[in-house]
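User: Run a structure prediction on this.
Assistant: Running it now.
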Amino acid sequence: MSQFWWVNHNQTARQEIDGQYLWSPKTESNGARSEFYNNMRRAAPGDLILSYFDQAVRYVGRVTEFAFTAPKPTEFKNTGTYWNQEGWLLPVYWTPLEPTVSPKAMIGELGPLLPARYSPIHPNSGSGNQKAYLAGVSPDVFHIIVANAAFDREALERGGANSLTFEIVNETLEDLVERRIREDLHLEDTVKKSVILARRGQGQFRANVEATERSCRLTGVTNSSLLIASHIKPWRLCVSAQERLDGMNGLLLTPDADHLFDRGFISFENGGEVLISPRVDKADLRRLGFEQLVMQSFGFSEAPAVWRTAVFTPPQQGYLAHHRADVFVA
């Protein structure tokens, strides 16, 4: 069932509409958690978003992917100079709402339906609330806003299907990182080559992973030709060549397990227990052959309490802490 959201993005609306996404820091500048930023991780594919800026709702968006960690967009330039440089990127396909809608003009009808806490606008004045970014709203709020306006529902339904997938957006972000690495005058050419090969799980990185890992942690497959060397802390998020080449920052996984892990649909506890995201479709897990994960996630009595693999080493545990916090879709 779709959720409904409202985003206040006066400072970054044009960049986010043109780029087909939303981006927020993970926390306030003082490190405090923000419900509005936490909502970036709660939004799911198919959810609908109202875009509010310049005192009007001007676009309707459809979430195309779960949010994932990404650097602050370069097109923001000096906007939000106090924001952290790493945040949540939520791919969204936007379509114009015509005519635009002024919440102030209908606040008498709209106000009583707004959430009591974390409302995007003031229930009496209709003005945008300070610090509000992505806020959950009821279906009633959404339908009142769009009742006397129009948007291209067909385009909204199908838009971004091929351009806003995790794979495409992630590839674009990794291309930017690779370009910086190639231009880095402080790295020797041999190191650059190794780091760039590591992006695809090849070269020295794979050799380093194979020095510790012998099989897929999820399936037990040992044939190296069937295994991918996958980064625990994603390649694009590593802060140094050392992290990108560190064998402790890698696992050997079959292609299906690698995709589940990279997309954050599974993760691991330090003791080897498999974590399963509640956002992954159980029918799809079954189709992939991961029946045991399905049984574990539903708590079937005939299934083991948890799917457990070997205990991870302390260096691996450090990288896994990052994966659980910043990649796993909990």
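The first strand starts at residue 4 and ends at 8.
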